[in-house]
Structures are given as structure tokens and as C-alpha cells.
Design a protein that fits this description.
Layout (H helix, E strand, L loop, with lengths): L1 H9 L1 H5 E11 L2 E5 L5 E6 L2 E2 L8 H12 L3 E9 L5 E7 L2 E2 H7 L4 E2 L9 H11 L14 H6 L18 H5 L19 H9 L16 H4 L1
Parallel strand pairs: 3-6
Antiparallel strand pairs: 1-2, 1-5, 2-3, 4-8, 5-6, 6-7
Helix pairs in contact: 4-5
Length: 222
């Protein structure tokens, strides 16, 4: 009996899976699961980061998650617990991987800091190339949610002026309009994420996204 008890408490399948119905959608990457024991579990979808509610496409991202999961019976493969006590996991609605589908639809970014699934970045690159979802927005509105949060909801895709250049902030804000495809070829030559985005999108300089994830010069744009 002791052996059976140990197996039950250490079995990965039993420890890592949750079953239940989705009864709440908080935003584009967080939902509430109601288990058969009537326990509510807040679940943060693994590997992705959807636009925040006040960001461009934030409301639409929440609607996309709702269409995929709300009121459906799902299985959650638990990966971790985040700093807010939420369960982090892969959500499966039947055979559909909800995280992957949101990325494929352009409703979420791949959360590169935490993602370990090699299948997600190519889906993001595909959505970006096809201009699905948030990738149809103007480049200035395609702001990573983690950047948005880090800057208190004030982040933009246009580089902020330096201390030396604050006096010329008006001119700096329109700097992207003055860019043209020139002799720059490498990330080390770029002065900002906005410039890197311009060369990548407008000038076809694909080498700036060397890992082919659709994000140029990640040292500037992540």
C-alpha cells in the first residue's frame, strides 16, 4: 500500500494534468478553470504573452481566447506556478493547443523569456509574415506586452529620446518618417528598435532577424 501511495503522489501524469471547464476569461492569455471538484484555478497560458487589455488588440486577443476555450472542457498540462500564484500550463481543447493557435492567429506573442517550445516561434513568424491579427497593426502599435508592462503602459515601438536629445523630442518623434534604405546592414549599426524595424520591414533586410523569428535585432527590440 505504501508503494501505491508513493506512485500516486509522484506520477507525472497525475501531478501535471488538470481537467475541467473554462468558466472565465480574464484577458488574452489567462483563464479560470472549474475542476470536477468545483475548485477554481486561475491558469496562465504557457509560452505566450497576449497584448494587455489597454494595448492595441488587447480586447480582440481576449475575444480570440474566449472563442477557443470559453465554456469548453479542457485539459491543462501544468508547467509551473508564476509569481502571482497562477498555474502556468498548456491548455488543450480536444486536440487543439490553445497557446499555439493564439500565436498562429496573431493574437499573442511568443514569450521568449520563458518559452521552451521550439514550435511556437515559427508560428509567430508565419503570422507576422501573413499580417494576421496584431501583425496587421501599424508597426508603432506592435509593442511586446512585457515592454508595455515594464514601462507602465507607456511603451511605444518608437525609441524614446535620450537625455541629450530631449530638447529635440519633437524632431525625434518623427525620425522614422525620415528614414530611408541606406548602407546599414547589421544590428550593431542600428541606433534604435524603430530603425531596426524599418530596415527589416521596409528595406527587406532579413538578416536582422537571424533566428528567423520575425523580430529584428532582439538586443534592441525585446
Amino acid at each position: 500500500m505504501l508503494l501505491v501511495a508513493l506512485l500516486l503522489t509522484t506520477s507525472p501524469a497525475l501531478a501535471a494534468d488538470l481537467l475541467g471547464q473554462v468558466v472565465g476569461i480574464q484577458d488574452g492569455d489567462t483563464l479560470t478553470l472549474l475542476t470536477p471538484e468545483r475548485r477554481q484555478v486561475r491558469v496562465r497560458l504557457y509560452g505566450i504573452d497576449a497584448p494587455e487589455s489597454r494595448q492595441p488588440y488587447g480586447t480582440r486577443a481576449q475575444q480570440e481566447l474566449s472563442a477557443l476555450a470559453f465554456r469548453k472542457q479542457v485539459r491543462v498540462t501544468v508547467e509551473d506556478t508564476d509569481q502571482y500564484g497562477r498555474t502556468v500550463g498548456r491548455v488543450w481543447a480536444g486536440s487543439l493547443d490553445v497557446s499555439a493557435e493564439l500565436v498562429r492567429r496573431g493574437a499573442a506573442w511568443v514569450y521568449r523569456q520563458y518559452n521552451r517550445d521550439p514550435m511556437l516561434p515559427p508560428l509567430e513568424a508565419e503570422a507576422r509574415q501573413a499580417k494576421r491579427g496584431l501583425w496587421a497593426l501599424p508597426a508603432s502599435e506592435q509593442v511586446q506586452p512585457w515592454v508595455w508592462r515594464r514601462n507602465g503602459g507607456r511603451a511605444t515601438a518608437t525609441a524614446q529620446p535620450s537625455a541629450a536629445g530631449r530638447a529635440g523630442a519633437t524632431a525625434s518623434s518623427s525620425s522614422t518618417a525620415d528614414l530611408s534604405c541606406g548602407s546599414k546592414r547589421y544590428c550593431t549599426q542600428m541606433s534604435s528598435c524603430a530603425e531596426a524595424q524599418f530596415y527589416f520591414r521596409q528595406c527587406g533586410l532579413s538578416r536582422l532577424a537571424g533566428d528567423r523569428d520575425g523580430v529584428p535585432c532582439e538586443q534592441l527590440c525585446r
